[in-house]
# Entry
Amino acid sequence: MHLLFECARRWDLTTTNPIELVRQSSKRSKTPRRLTIEEFRALVSELSEPYRTMAILAGCLGLRISEILGLQWAQPIDAEHRIFNASSDVKDAEGHVLVTAYAVLRPDGQWSLMLINSGRSC
# Structure
């Protein structure tokens, strides 16, 4: 909006920019520090479920906490192999789901997140 009013000012369509009166949030003074791979692994190893899975989703997929909390877990789609379908409301402009996520219990007892791309482009 600020740029819009600045253009209008240059073109003599207005004499003021009312957006200048709006209080702006302060800009970051420095770039946030990112965890190294080793630090991330150490953090995840100290967390219990469901926080461990939440941290992995945030760190690996870049999901915000609001997106993680919006995930809905269904009943196992394959009880023998312990595969759970996880769906979210992340969709393209037409409302199509772009990625299907599955939580899979591996034979070694660890959980993995399997992501299947729908093949649609954004």
Observations:
- The chain has two domains: 35-70, 71-122.
